[in-house]
Amino acid sequence: MELKIIKTENKKAKPTGKLGFGKYFTDHMFIMEYEGGEWKNARIQPYQDLHLAPSASVLHYAQGVFEGAKAYKNSKGEIRLFRLNDNLDRMCDSAERLCMPTFDKKFVYDAIKQLIFIDEDWIPTDEGTALYIRPTMIATEPALGVHASKTYYMYVIVSPVGAYYAHGLAPVKLLVEENYVRAAKGGTGGHKVIGNYAASMKAGENAQAKGYDQAMWLDAKHHRYVEEVGAMNIFFVIDGVAYTPALRGSILPGITRRSVITLLKSHNIKVREMNVDIRKVAEAAENGKLNEIFGTGTAAVISPVGWFGYHGKDYEVNKGEMGEISKMIYDELTGIQNGKYPDKFGWVDIIKK
Ligand SMILES: Cc1ncc(COP(=O)(O)O)c(C=O)c1O
Fold it and tell me: Ligand 1 centroid to 339 CA: how many Å?
């Protein structure tokens, strides 16, 4: 398929001041359309509203999937893509889960590269910033019957971003959610599908109303085993061993999670992927054995957890400060992403040297 390029004649003003997360969008986007069993009309075009019928099935039945990846520009002027192939693999897995078509990953990868080159002057360069890449696929068939759509848009928008949490690297406060559940085995929790996020908002809002930053999810059956947090996977360092919930279908298989496991192991830190019982975590906090908790995600990077609330009680973690292991992993991961550290695991594609 050919990639058509239509450039804008009206470039927008760049943001000044704090970027925050996902508030600004660049001048262009990639889009292609699925119809008659194939993708067509692939193009990079000026960033614009979508043409969508009010009856489009994504708006009624949430047949939609998305991804989140990042490109970095360092002081040498290199543009560095982090594990984008893994995101496109996961997007195709998510699409299959929702009976949506997959796509030629190499074609989309190259189209994203082109998009980044065209909007290169939008890539921020300050410490902690990046160009966030949001591939999205939605069902567009104008039909109210509940069935897989026959037509789709696949598009990619990009956004210069800073820290995901307003307070940057400062430790966050999580509330363990004991009533609502995010996902059950056999559901869609292990895929990046849009409905998962709508279903999780209530718990997040409740947590925030009580003074916490986010909800920490427990499993749907026992309400006892930790799953994940908002847009992050989670790690607990207890007595020097790093524990993270095993992937059993209801947790998103995070690409940062996978990278962090590799980094921890490379430092000879033991990693256990298993059921993590929140009662045992609380117990460890009480006997001084809980060293650190941190979340991992493309948007949140490494996010230290300073406190968590469970069963009416607040627990402090590492005196409410970022722990040694979290800091080491943060430095190493961001160092690999921006080129300060060697890319010894082959995670980075330098698309412009
Ligand atoms: C629900 C959820 N869990 C975990 C993550 C972390 O995944 P990744 O490291 O691939 O960004 C995300 C973010 O993508 C997410 O939305």
Answer: 23
Q: Report the amino acid identity of residue 245.
A: P
In a domain, 345, yes or no: no
277 and 327, same domain (yes or no): yes
Name the band, by pLDDT with cuts 50, 70 and 90, for residue 236.
very high
Atom of ligand 1 nearest to the CA of 86: 10
Residues with CB under 6 A from ligand 1: 68, 228, 231-233, 252, 254-257, 296-298
Roughly what angle, to the nearest 10 degrees, separates helices 105-118 and 84-97? Answer: 130
Tell me: pLDDT of 3 over 80. yes
Residue 278 covered by a domain: yes
CATH code assigned at 152: 3.30.470.10
Residue nearest to atom 12 of ligand 1 (CA): 231
- Local confidence band at 353 (pLDDT 50, 70, 90 cut-offs): confident
Asked if 178 and 34 sit in the same domain, the reply is: no
One domain for residues 177 and 310 = yes
**Global model pTM greater than 0.90:** yes
Report pLDDT for 164: 75
Residues sharing a CB contact under 8 Å with residue 104, sequence separation 6 or more, in sequence order: 1, 39
Q: Say if residue 169's pLDDT is above 90.
A: no
Do both 209 and 235 map to the same domain?
Answer: yes
Atom of ligand 1 nearest to the CA of 252: 3
CA separation for the pair 183, 209 (Å, rounded): 22
Q: What is the DSSP letter of 236?
A: E
Provide the 10 A C-beta neighbour count for residue 241: 14
Residues of the domain holding 49: 4-161
Regarding whether 325 and 227 lie in a shared domain, the answer is: yes
pLDDT mean across residues, the chain: 97
Instruction: Tell me the percentage of the chain whose pLDDT exceeds 90.
Output: 97
Q: Which of 94, 126, 161 is the last residue of a domain?
A: 161
The SS3 of residue 336 is helix
Tell whether 255 is covered by a domain: yes
Report the separation in Å between the CA atom of 111 and the middle of ligand 1, taken as the mean of its atom positions: 23
